[in-house]
Amino acid sequence: MHSSEKVGVLIINTGTTAAPRAEETRTYLREFLSDPRVLDINPVVRWLLLNLVILRKRPKDSAHAYSQIWTDQGSPLLVITRELMAGLKERMPETEFAIGMRYGKPSIEDGLNELIEKQVDRIILAHQFPQYSSAANGSALELAYQLAGRPWNVPHLSALPPFYDDPGFIESWVAVSKPVLESFQPDHVLMSYHGLPERHVQKSDTTGGAHCLQSDDCCDRICVANKWCYRAHCFETSRLLAQRLGLGPDDYSISFQSRLGRDPWIQPPTDVVVPDLPKDGIKRLAVMCPSFTADCLETLEEIGLRAKSDFLTAGGEAFQFIPCLNSHPTWVVALVRMLQRI
Are residues 66 and 190 located together in one domain of the fold? Predict the structure, then answer.
């Protein structure tokens, strides 16, 4: 950053329903699943699937899930993002901050307008998606670029790159998880990442499909072919975390959660892996979710409640959900350093 310029930072995350009720959740899901980068299928088929199938039952189910984790202050994701912004402001007092959710409120448009009204010279898009995917990073950045290009005076934009291997990001996860692991003493650590359809990964293959998911070892290292591959990024994050946490190859495993629909999703699925672990003699399981920087429905309800129930029902004896980075001081410092490098 140049000392003379006024910088604005837009903190971007996926978003949340406005209330844990079916009506608000339906509105949120409609916006989310209408995104062609999320459901990258024929537009007519997408409309039919969304309106005739998904939106008939899922809003009620999702609203119930949200009600399990809702706080007095509102949605955990939004509350945590506000806490993160407060921590960043404290360390970067000359910088303007705003929040922009890709879906729901406050929107990316709201956040951009807030920063433009404050007459910033430059805006940094601080997305909270460590591993690249077109459905998350690509969608949020595309929309931000489109919206920022509408005013007569188009603001200068910068964006965080994927930070799946950033030392500060890794150290932040170590700072959060190591004390929990030392106290809980698990038999095994599961690193559960948000899932994606296999076709999303294959479309990111720079060789046109010759590398990604073509062999069992395609994600063993980052190379030119998989430099945009979400799955490869997740595996690299896990390798780096395992090294810093002193986990051997048999001490941890990787899985992918939040499957939707019948299309093949990247493997293995968390909801299949978790109930199978007690069969392998694992009685004490710790789960961390390193594709999320802030706790949300997918971590607090899907892992903290449902996966825990599945594990204990299947014969497990103790389950420990490890919180995300949220507004942990180490993460705030790491994010400040990332922003100052832009």
Answer: no
